[in-house]
Amino acid sequence: MARILVIEDDPDTAGEIVAELRGHGHEVRAANDGDSGVELALREPFDAITLDRMLPGLDGLSVVARLRAAGLTLPVLMISALGDVDERIAGLRAGGDDYLIKPFAPDEMAMRVEVLLRRQGQMAASTALLTAGPVEMDLIRREVRVAGEPVRLLHMEFRLLEFLMRNAGETVARQIIFERVWGYYFDPGANLIAVHIARLRKKIDLPGQPSLIETVKGEGYRFDAG
Amino acid sequence: MPAEWPWATWPRFSAIRKTSTFRLAVMFGAASVLAVLLVLAMVYSLTAGNLDTRVDLILRAEMARLVAVPPADLPAAIDASSRAGANPLGHFGLISPGGRWVAGDLGASPPLRLGHTYAREDGPDVRGPLHILAERTAGGFIIMVGRDSTVITELRDHVLVILLASGLVVVPLLLGAGLALSLGPLRRVDRLQRVASTIAGGRLDARMPIEGRGDELDLLADTVNHMVGEVERSMAQVKSVTDAIAHDLRTPLTRVRNQLYRAARAPNLPEAEGQRINAAIEDLDTVLARFAALLRISEIEAGHRRQGFAATRIDELVAVVIDLYAPLAEEREVALLAGSLAPVTLVCDAQLMVEALSNLLDNAIKFSPPGGTVMVTVTREGGQAVIAVVDEGEGIPAEQVDAVVRRFDRGAASPAVPGSGLGLSVVAAVAHLHQFALELAPARADRARPGLAARIRAGHVPAM
């Protein structure tokens, strides 16, 4: 369970975000403008923030700038009706960690928050070795072993497996995979990510065993650590 | 030859000679030459005729004088007339009734025609052309009176020389004038053609250049500009309505989707109901993705985004996209090959270029038959960078090329081939934003399977 601060001025949207995050078992506090959001974030400990880009008074970009200036490194998911990619770039440059465009699906929002939370946790742990089920990944030597046997992965396959393992046990949408692994912000279509996953499965799955990467229909993929 | 040298861009003569200006100039010149010819011919004809008449009158007057001389005095009179200096142009002869040459300086060369003036040529270095009149006297003598007509011949020769010289001067002058008069209009037409091609390529914001002369080309350009402006305005209205629908429907549809999502997670929901709700969510996700894509195209077309523009190695970007699509090609049994990838740096939005290239590769792989090849190259052509994606699919008929870059137009693609019909619209929008040209053409001369060569042609690229 994580403590999450929702800064959103629209009550309907705020209610939707709060309900979804609470549904995922998180403790959620809400603020309806930038100033009270900053005050709350500086006063109480939080693990992540969802932040509306357009707020009355102090706007989203200024909020995130103040938080960073105050030394807070917690992940911030910026949510905005401004879909322009330039706005996304501006949001990320200001200190946001991810960007979601309104109107959004609450499950995707929750998924993005949880990806950010796990990334934050792993950064704190600063591990050089990832282990999930039979798979071991040495991030320094860039080596992968499955059930002790070395597996040769191409550069992007390595990054894809690393991302899935960092989110082991959780479903991640293909769009999020594409953004986080390849770094591009457009819809690549369902097939493209599917064939990369299929290729990775061929290299890491053990014969006669269920696949380590499960397809969650309509949602995405989940690395099953067993 | 550097492209900036003016003559490097001069039109070819084959193009010039087809222009109305050139043809008019040549026709006008030819008519002028013909008129000059006619005038000279008339001058020659009248002058020569006049001289002939005068010679004839002179000959007859001389003949009348000699016929009046008594027969016994004729030889002396003929000799006196023939003496050098007495009459420089006149020549005379006397033949006896028995046919014997009696006096004079004219030889009795046949044929001898009595009573009529006729011409005779004594050959070079003897005498020039002669006009001769021969008459038989009452005593049976034949008197011949001749006059040198060299002056008439010279007049004819002079006229011919004048004609020839005029031709030698006038014809090159005519061609030169035609060329000079045609170059300007031809260059203007060339500029108009370039803009017309740009407009035909979807750049409805482009306008024909107007020189301000108020001539027929300016009037035509103004009319076309007005027409394109109207088309642009109409299309903007249609697009605006489409975007408004997409934008306004997104929020309620997302709410419906979210409610369905929550309903699907309700406890004790029968499995069959859950499956139906999830199927509805998937359908709504598809619709929302299409709306998002539509709005994204509008955003790119609006041309506002500039923050992502930076100097980018386009060959490296292409290599990344090839790596991205290699597994998809492998799954479809299509060979995705990187041909020549020349090192080229372009100022572009890398995110958008990857998106455009992804759409091109996705299409090429999707429409290639199993066992087919998709070749991707980056080359330099005359200072331009050309990114080409060439496949072996069924291609796009020439008449559908313009249509397939429009939203939702899938050309003649089989309904079984998945796709939204927005891919090439995205490519066209990205190319438009960067002011690059998108060219779609058959890859080869095979009517059954011409393939498609999709090229993004970027403007002037500095040498590396």
From TrEMBL, chain A:
<dbReference type="Pfam" id="PF00486">
    <property type="entry name" value="Trans_reg_C"/>
</dbReference>
<feature type="domain" description="Response regulatory">
    <location>
        <begin position="3"/>
        <end position="117"/>
    </location>
</feature>
<dbReference type="InterPro" id="IPR001789">
    <property type="entry name" value="Sig_transdc_resp-reg_receiver"/>
</dbReference>
<dbReference type="InterPro" id="IPR036388">
    <property type="entry name" value="WH-like_DNA-bd_sf"/>
</dbReference>
<dbReference type="InterPro" id="IPR011006">
    <property type="entry name" value="CheY-like_superfamily"/>
</dbReference>
<dbReference type="InterPro" id="IPR001867">
    <property type="entry name" value="OmpR/PhoB-type_DNA-bd"/>
</dbReference>
<dbReference type="InterPro" id="IPR039420">
    <property type="entry name" value="WalR-like"/>
</dbReference>
<protein>
    <submittedName>
        <fullName>Two-component system OmpR family response regulator</fullName>
    </submittedName>
</protein>
<keyword id="KW-0597">Phosphoprotein</keyword>
<dbReference type="Pfam" id="PF00072">
    <property type="entry name" value="Response_reg"/>
</dbReference>
<keyword id="KW-0238">DNA-binding</keyword>
<feature type="domain" description="OmpR/PhoB-type">
    <location>
        <begin position="127"/>
        <end position="225"/>
    </location>
</feature>
<feature type="DNA-binding region" description="OmpR/PhoB-type">
    <location>
        <begin position="127"/>
        <end position="225"/>
    </location>
</feature>
<feature type="modified residue" description="4-aspartylphosphate">
    <location>
        <position position="52"/>
    </location>
</feature>
